[in-house]
Amino acid sequence: MTAKEHVAEYSAVLGELLREREKLLGTLDRVAALHGTARLIREAVGAKAGFVAELDRPELAVIRWMSGTRTDALQDLEVPVGQGIGGRVLALGRPVRVSDYVSSPAITHQFDAQVRGEGLAAMLAVPIVARGETVAIAYAAMREPADFGDDAVRRLEEVALDAGTALHLAKVAETDRTAAVAGERLRMQSALHDSVGALLFSIGVQVRDLTADLHGNPGLEARLHRLEGDVSAAAGALRESLLALSESSPERALPVELAEHCRSFQARCGVPARFVQLAAVPPLDAERTALLVSAVREGLLNVEKHARASSVIVSLVAGDDGVQVVVADDGTGAAPVPGAGVG
Q1: Pick among 3.30.70.330, 3.30.565.10, 2.40.50.320, 3.90.1640.10: CATH of 249-331
Q2: d(Cα 125, Cα 12) in Å, to the nearest integer?
Q3: pTM of the entire structure?
C-alpha cells in the first residue's frame, strides 16, 4: 500500500470516528436527538416527511421536530390522546397506519386542515418508548396515498427504539449536569459563608466595640452607627443570597448531597469515592431525603474508621416502591482483636 493510500485509509477512519463522536454527543442532547430522529425517519422508511411529537403530559403530544416538510402547518400542533393518528397511537400504545389520512375511517379528523395544508396523504405513526413509558411519537408520511407495509413499520419501530434510548441518555445527562450545577451552588454557598460571612461578623463586632468606647465625638459616633447599619444590611443580603443558592427541588437535593458527601470523604481521607446515579429517582420529601443522607454519612464514617478501603462507591437507584442507596467499598475491615477463650 502506498503512502497516499495509507493517508486515504487513515482519513476515512478518522472521519468515521468523528461521525460516531457526533452521534454520541447527539444522544446526550435531547433536542439534537429529536431533530436527528425526524431526519432519520425519512431515510429509514423512505418517507417524504418525518416528524416527532414530544409528550408535554401523558395525554398530550406536541409536534415540534420535523424534516422534509414544506410549511409550518404542523409546527407546534397539539395532539390530545385519541385524536388523529398520533392521538390513536397514544391511546393504543402501538403503531397506527393509514393509506390516506383525510379519508381514513380508522382515525378522527380534527387535524385534516393541517394535513392538507402540508400536502400529506399516507401516514404511519409509532410510539417512542423510554424505560417502559411513551415519551414521544414518531411519524412517517407520504405526499400521495400509499400503503405502509410491515417492513416500513419494523424500520420505523427500530428508529423509535433508538430514539427512546437516546432520550433516556439525554435525560440522565441532563440530571448529571443539573446535579453538577447544584453541587457548585453548594460549594459557593459554603465559601461565601466561611469567608464573607465571617468577615462581616468580625467587622460588625469591631464597629460595636468602637462605638461603645467612643464618647464625646458625635460625628464619628454617627458615622460608626451608619457603618454598623451598612454591615447589618450586607449580612442580611448575604443570608438571602445563601438561601437562594441553597434552594433545590427535593428530587435534585438527594443526588447533589450524596455527591457532595463523596467529595468530602475523598478530600478528608484521600480515598477515591464516587457517586453513581443508576437512574432517575422519584421526588422525595425533605424528611426522607435527610434520612437517606444521614445513612450515607454514617456509612462513609464507618468506612473511614474501620474498612481500610482503597475505593468507595455510593450508588443511588429507583426501586419498585422508593429508592435504594448503597455504600460499597473494597476494604478488608478492621484487624481482629486477639483475646482469650472460646468463640
Answers
A1: 3.30.565.10
A2: 36
A3: 0.48
